[in-house]
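During the reporting period the student researcher (J.K.) took over the structure-prediction task from the postdoctoral fellow and processed the backlog of single-chain submissions. One of the processed entries is reproduced below for the supervisory committee.
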Amino acid sequence: MIILLWAILVGGAATFALLWPYGIIVALVGAPFGASSLAGLTALYLSRRGTHQKFGHNASAKKNLGRIVEVRTDLTR
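J.K. obtained the following structure tokens:
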């Protein structure tokens, strides 16, 4: 969430600075569009990054992937 907040602040400030030569009204109107665009791109990046990092913290899970360790058919014990 902090990353998205920073993306919004940076996107808004950068868009405001880039549109400043066209006037303050244009810069003020355009800043939210730049902020939301950068926030959307950041959210896409974070969602893609989260789906591709599987078994990052558990190295033994990667090693045991595809190998059946134990099968219990009687679950009453």
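The committee noted the following: The CA atoms of residues 9 and 35 lie 7 Å apart.
J.K. will present the remaining backlog at the next meeting.
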